[in-house]
Each structure stands twice: as C-alpha cells, then as structure tokens.
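Q&A FORM
Asked by: J.P.
Topic: structure of RraA family protein

PROVIDED:
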Amino acid sequence: MIKPTLLSLCLFFTLQAVAQQVATTPEQIKALTAEWKGERFADGRPKTSDRFIERLKHISLEEAWGYLRNKGYNNQFEGEWMIIEPDSVMTGRVVTAQYMPQRPDYDNMIKAKGKSEGRIGGTNSWPIDVLQNGDVYVADSYGKIVDGTLIGDNLGNAIYAKSQRGVIFYGSVRDIEGLEAIKGFNGWVKGYDPSYIQQMMLGAINVPIRIGRATVLPGDVVLAKKGGVVFIPAQYLEDLVMNAEFVQLRDAFGHQRLREGKYTPGQIDQQWTDDIKKDFLQWIDTQKNLPMTKQELDTFMKDRTW
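REPLIED BY: S.T.
REPLY: Here is the structure written out as tokens.
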C-alpha cells in the first residue's frame, strides 16, 4: 500500500475544505497534526501549553532553528520582513489562511459556502472570526503588495481584540499608522501599500500553507523576532524550549567559570568532565531565577546526554 505524502495530504485537505466547508474540520486537523498526542481545542488544533509559549519568547531564532533542523525539519524559517514593532517578540498558536488570485467561479463558490455557514462580511474577515486568545493569524497571500492588503487598522483592532497577538502575512497591509497605534499589536509582513484588497480571494482557513521558505500547519507555534519567524510543530514545543533553556544555563555557567578563571576555554568547549558536570549541578542549586521548575529540570536531566 502506498503511503500518502505530505503534499498529497495537503492537496486532499485543501480540496476537501473547499468542497465541504471554508475551514477544515477538527478531524482533518487532527489527521494533519497526528504526531501531537495532547489536548486539543474544539477546532482540532493542538492545545499547546501557554506557559511554554510564553517561555519561547526567551529562545533565540538560532536555537529554535537548530533544534528543528536536528529533527529533520529544514523548512521552518522565513526572514526578510517588514515588522510593525521590530523590537518586540511575538509567540502564539497558528491559524492559517490561504489566499489566491481571484477566479470568479471559485470565488463565488467560497462566498456561497461561507454564507451557508453563517459567515458575514468580506472573506478577508472570516479568518479573524475564528481567532482565540493566544492565536497568531498567518496568511499566504502569495507576496502580493499592491491591491493585496489583507487588513487595515479596523481589522487590526479586531484581530488584537480576539487574539491579543498580531499577524504574519506573506503579503501586505494598509493603514500602517493606524496599525502602529494599536498597543500590543504586531505584524510581520512583506510590504505596505495604501491600496484596498482587489482581485484576490480566500481559498480556505486552517489548511497547510507556504510562507516563503516555510511550510506551516494550523496549530504550529510561531516564534517571531527581529530576524525572522520560525514555525514549530506542536509536538516539539516543550522539548525545544527545555533544550534551549538548558543550553542557556550551560552557557551562563561556562561564562561565569571562565570569568572566574576556574576553567580554561578548552575545558568548557569540549565534552565536560565528571567534575565539571558536578560543579554545574551544584551551581544550578544556587540559582534563584531558573527558566524552568526544578521538577522539570530533574525530569529533563534524566534523559540528557550532555
């Protein structure tokens, strides 16, 4: 029996979403994110930990990217963004939307289906209606800038009211000054233009999408910083954060001991001796502001190979 590829699954779920509903069903999202074994939201997306999503803010893009690359996920980063608030960090659970150049028969079908589902307003507002607190609205609008503005300040306010987050658009926005005035809102976009959205249509909500170099699934967790964005499969969030936090502790310990002259760079940069490991564990006991709980650290250390 031939196993379905990710591409074939993506095409299947996209076509199913269009044929049956505007957004994918919970069952379809569960199938797309089958490696997640934890709790889920009513829409099927993984219910990843709020605590780990908050801690993710302190992880560097390089740490997140390196972890995922070691897991075989080589296409989860996209850079070169225009950022509304460049010095802030955004993390959250992904809601996806796929936009395409307008084709009347397809567009009419989507609008009719949306109307039958009770959706109101323009189709570019429908993904906003499904947002929950902690969600990040991620849309592929195929890099269209002029006449490709998915939101202005009105929809920006609606997005922030529902999610307390912002957007990541492979496309553009308008009303940039109004968006900048929304305290707490942020956006990673490919451009700004004063034009209104034209000759574009919504393809589907919560389907697999492409954001530049990255493949993104609904329910991924995003880390967005000044240097770019990393999309993290839900099943790896907690382990990624724990690994990065442990490395940060190792680095802090190593830097302190080097400043004190207790060890040489050669001792710190190679595989640690048992004496250095023992010193590190004793040092941890003296730290008052660990990024993780002591129980989390003890559990993590059981499987850690240094």
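FOLLOW-UP: The chain has two domains: 6-47+79-232, 238-302.
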